[in-house]
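re: that complex we talked abt at group meeting.

here r the seqs, copy pasted straight from the sheet so there may be weird spacing, ignore it
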Amino acid sequence: DGGITQSPKYLFRKEGQNVTLSCEQNLNHDAMYWYRQDPGQGLRLIYYSQIVNDFQKGDIAEGYSVSREKKESFPLTVTSAQKNPTAFYLCASTLSDRGYRDEQFFGPGTRLTVL
Amino acid sequence: AQSVAQPEDQVNVAEGNPLTVKCTYSVSGNPYLFWYVQYPNRGLQFLLKYITGDNLVKGSYGFEAEFNKSQTSFHLKKPSALVSDSALYFCAVRDPLTGANNLFFGTGTRLTVIP
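got the structure back, here u go
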């Protein structure tokens, strides 16, 4: 089955710790995205990557970092600089960064809770 | 700037009745519009999209949406609601004039279908 996997499903972090959320896709998609979902606020874009070894900040990139060393993988690190990291994190992908007609495919999400 | 508004946080409908979930948008060019559904603690699932052509778009699970350019709306509809349609629904827009492949999401509408 082709799709997007995110791990772990649930993640607990102590304040001051960095954590990394995994996102892997086997759809052969070029573009990948990270969103943050908070109740009543919809989805907000954190980072996106149009191609390997390249990525751009989204609307709320502060306190987050990403890498794109492989086409299939786009991990997100939530750093201690992120003031309010408790949220549901969603990874998505599209076939091409210029595929404006293409829908995004989403992973199942990771729920991060800061203790 | 592009934006999406979903004016209703909550929509309740009786099983078997028609349902409508409202969405209005604002973009500088011709919009590409999308509807997604989210079940609890899951990722988003694509329902349908409007790119060009017929204003009435049919999608998954019996859903359809009507693009109305003069009213800048893209309301989601279904002739007969099922209890299993109860979920969180997101409208999203992409403006190809921006040169970016990012989606801008509304804040979501929670649909409850009452047996």
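couple things i noticed - The first strand of chain B starts at residue 3 and ends at 5. The mean pLDDT of chain B is 93.
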